[in-house]
Amino acid sequence: MILDGKCPTGPIEKTWDKHRFDLKLVNPANKRKYNIIVVGTGLAGGAAAASLGELGYNVQAFCYQDTPRRAHSIAAQGGINAAKAYPNDGDSIYRLFYDTIKGGDFRAREADVWRLAQVSNNIIDQCVAQGVPFARDYAGYLDNRSFGGAQVSRTFFARGQTGQQLLLGAYSALSRQIAAGTVKMYNRREMLDLVVVDGVAKGITCRNLITGELESYAADAVCLCTGGYVNVFYLSTNAMGCSVTANWKAYKKGAYFANPCYTQIHPTCIPQAGDYQSKLTLMSESLRNDGRCWVPKNKADLAKHPDEIPEEARDYYLERKYPSFGNLAPRDIASRAAKEQCDDGRGVGPGGRGVYLDFSTAIKRVGADTIKERYGNLFEMYEKITDENGYKRPMRMYPAPHYSMGGLWVDYNLQSNIPGLFVLGEANFSVHGANRLGASALMQGLADGYFVIPYTIGGYLAGIKPGTVTTADPEFKKSTNEVKAYSQKLLSINGKKTVSEFMRELGGLMWENCGMARTESSLKDNLKKIPALREEFWKNVKVSGTGGELNQDLENAGRTADFLEFGELMCRDALHRKESCGGHFREEYQDQGEAERDDVNFCYVGAWEFKGEKAEPELHKEPLKFDNVHLAVRSYK
Amino acid sequence: MSSHNEHKTMTLTLIVWRQKNATAQGKFDTYTAKGITEHHSFLEMLDVVNEDLIKGGKEPIMFDHDCREGICGMCSQVVNGVPHGGQERTTVCQLHMRKFKDGDTIYIEPWRARAFPIVRDLIVDRSALDTIIQAGGYTSCHTGGVPDGNAILVSKPDADYAMDAAECIGCGACAAACPNSAAMLFTSAKVAQLAALPQGKPEAAVRVKKMLDAHKECGFGNCSNHYECQAACPKGINVKFIAKLNREYLKAHLG
Q1: Among residues A284, A287, A367, A441, which one has the fewest Cβ atoms lying within 10 Å of its Cβ?
Q2: What does the DSSP 8-state code read for residue A67?
Q3: What pLDDT, in 10s, does the model give residues A454-509?
C-alpha cells in the first residue's frame, strides 16, 4: 500500500498556517466532554498533557516513574535549537528547515520539518515565560552557541542541563494543570496494551507497578509520547526503564512502525569499562566545540601516555577528513569516523575501543577556567565514572546508541494509521529522517507537545462524538485477560537464565550485526539468531516473584520480550534498505567510507504492518518528495 | 589509565533493609557481594547481587533507579547512614565502588522520613514532593500567550542564581538527611529560582505561602538550621536558598 502523509500542499512557508486554519475546532464548552490519554511525561508528553489540560480537555497522563519529572528527556545536556537568529549570523526558519532536511539525509517529510522550524521560536518564548533559566549574556539577553555541525549559533542552553530545565518547565506546567484538576496523573503505571474498538484507539491497559493490578482506561484519543527504543542494544545512553513496549503493543494492534533501522549512535560517550556495565554515559556534543578528536598515527604509540605522543604522531582524523566542519561534523559521520580508526587498530584504552577528545589546545587558547565554566559538570561526571582528570589528560570517548529516528508512522497531524492514536516526540518517526542533528530532539518533543497536538487533535475530536466507549466495552476485558495471561506465562517458565542475560545477549547481537555498520550477511545472521534467542527466552527465562506485587524483574522481562521481537523487525528493515543514509550504514553501499544513498529506489518512508505472530510483516511505502531542498549528496568536507 | 588492576575484585558484606510492602514489618538482611571491581557503580554492584538472588530463587532487592547518570533523581538509598553515600555532589547511581575497600560492610536503607512512606525494600513514595510543586512551583503562563524570549531581560547574575537553584533533581535526599525530616531545601530551591526571575515575581507571594502550606500538610518538619540537607544534596544546592525562602515568606506576609 502507498501511504499518504496528508501533508498540506502549496508554498512551504504557508503550509502550517493554512493547515491550522483548515482544521476543525472543538467548541470551548465541549472540550471538557472529551477524554484524552497521554502516555509518557517527557518533553512531548509533559508538554502535551499540560497544553491539552489548559485548553479544557480531560486529560489522563501516565508515566512509569514515581513522578512525571523523571522522564529521560531530563538527561539531554547540550541545548535546544530555534531559528530566532538573535546573533544576526544568517539564520532563518528556512535555514533551520534546510539544515534539518539535509542533516536527516533526505529521509524526512518537508512539510513536517518546516512546521518544526517555524514553531521552534515559540518554544523558546514559552520556556522563558515558565522561568527556564537559559544562559544569558551580560546585557541580560539570551545567549546562543553553535552546536552539532550547524554553521550558525542557534542553540539555547541552560549550562549542561538543558533537557532537565526544559523538562522541569513542562513538569511545572503539568503540575499546574494537575492542581487545576484538568489532568489526572497516574505515576508508576506501565502501558501494556492499546485498546482498539472497531478499528479506533479508545484506551489502554496498564500495570500498576506498585500493586501489580491491571487497570483499564478509556478515552476519545490516545497520545503515545513514549520515547525511543535504543535500549534494544542493551547498552545505550537511555535510562534503564526506556523500552519499546508501548510502541510495540500499538504495532501489534495495527499501528505501522516506520524506519526502525534508523538509530543514532552518538559519537562522544564514555567507553565501556566492563561486562557488568548497565549503561553508557553520554558526554555532550558541545565538548566538540573545544575538544579535538585524535588517535595515534602509529600502533606502536598505543601503549604510551598521550602526553608522550608528539603532535606530528597524532591523527586528528576529523580535521583531516572533513576540513570545513572538522570536529563539529554531524553525529553519524563523527561516529563512523571513530569506529573506522578503532577498526584500523588505532583505538585507545581498554579493548582498543576509544578515541581521545583533547582539550589542551583550547585550554592554551582560552584558559582552564573558561573551559571549566563551559563544561565543568561534564568534566566532573567524567572523573566520577573513569577516575581520570579530563583537564590533564585527554578524555577517552567511543560512540554509543543514543536516539531512535524511527518510530510509529504518523501523518502530518501526528495521527498513526489507527484513528485516534497520536504519536509524539521520539516515539514517532516524523522529522529527523535518517539522522538527527544535535539540539533537535528537545525542539521536536516540545514542538509536538506544545504547538502541534493542541491543534491537530482538535481536528480529529471535532469529528467524533465524545464518550462513546467506556471500560465496560468487552475489548477492555479481552485486553486485560491477554496481558494477564502473558505475565503469567513469563512467571511460569522458571528456567535457568535471568532476564538480563537474555537482554545482554540480544544487545550484543544488535550492536555487532545491526549497529554502526550493517551488511546483508550480518543482518541475515541476526534474522536467524534473534528468533532462536527468543525461543530460548520463552523456554528458559527465570522471572522471580509474582504478578500481584511490585516486581521489577517482571517489568524487565516484559520489556525484554518486546525487544526480542522488535530487534528482528529492526534487522528486517535494515536488510531491505539497500542503501546507506544517515545512521543507517550498509557497508555494501558506500563511496570511500561515505554513505551512498539510492534516491531512485529508496526515497521513501518504510512502514511495517504486523500480520500475526507467525507471518512476516508487510512493508508499506510513503514516497518522499523534495520540492524545496533538492536531493543532493550530503557533504561535510 | 589509573593505576588499577582489572582483575582485582572485592568481596563486600551488605546489610540491606527488606520490606515486602508498605504495611509489612521490615528488617535487615545480610548479603555478600562478590567479584566487584572498582569500576562498578554502586547500583551495578547491587545488580550483581540481584542476579545471584534471582538465580537462587530468591527475591531481588528492589530499588528505584532510572537514568543512572545522576540527573533523573530516581535513585534513593541511604548508604552507611548517609543519603546517596556521602561522596560530595554525587547520587548513589554515580557512586563507584572504588570508594570502598575489599571486606567492607555496607548498610543500605531507604530514605527515612514520615512524608516518604516505604513502598518496598529501598523504594519510597515521594509524591509529597509533587504535591509541593503542584501548590505553586510554576508561573501561570498559558501555552502560546507569551512575549518574545528577549522581551524579558534577566541579568546574568540573576539567571545564574536561578540556575543554581533550578539544578535540584527532586530526589528527596535533603528530607532524608534532615533530623527534622524537612524538605525545605527542595521547596526553597523552587521558590528561590522563580523569585529571582522577572517571570516569577507576580506570583512570588502567593507561591511561597502555598508551597510552605503544602510542605507542612505533607508531614515534613521545619528547618532547624542543621545544614545536613546541603551536605547530602547531590547537586550542591546551597542553604542560602532557605534564607531566601524565609525572606520571601516574610515579604509575603508583610506585603
Answers
A1: A367
A2: S
A3: 999 999 999 999 999 999 999 999 999 999 999 999 999 999 999 999 999 999 99
Q: Is some CB atom of chain A closer than 8 A to the CB atom of B88? A: no
Q: Cell numbers at residue A524, please?
A: 541475515
Q: Is A164 in Cβ contact with B2 (below 8 Å)?
A: no
| A331 a catalytic residue | yes
B48 touches A at CB < 8 Å:
yes
Print the domain residue range for A341.
Answer: 265-402
Distance CA A244, CA A563 (A): 7
Q: How many domains does chain A have?
A: 1
H runs (alpha helix) in A182-297: 245-252
CB < 8 Å to A240, chain B: 65-68
Q: Please tell me which residue in A331, A374, A504, A518 is annotated as part of the active site.
A: A331
CATH code 1.10.1060.10 region(s) in chain B: 126-141+149-254
Q: Which chain A residue lies closest to B87 (C-alpha atoms)? A: A384
Any idea which fold B126-141+149-254 has?
Fumarate Reductase Iron-sulfur Protein; Chain B, domain 2 (1.10.1060)
Assign domain B10-120 to its CATH architecture: Roll (3.10)
Q: Which of residues 150-179 of B touch A (CB under 8 A)?
A: 150, 152-156, 159-160, 162-163, 166-167, 169-170
pLDDT digit string, tens, across residues A142-154? 999 888 778 899 9
Q: Per the domain annotation, does A329 fall within a domain?
A: yes
Q: What whole-number distance in Å separates Cα of residue B9 and Cα of residue B62?
A: 24
Q: Convert the pLDDT of each residue in A597-622 to its tens digit.
A: 999 999 999 999 999 999 999 999 99
- Coil/strand/helix, residue A62: strand
Of all residues in chain B, the one with the smallest CA distance to A157 is: B163
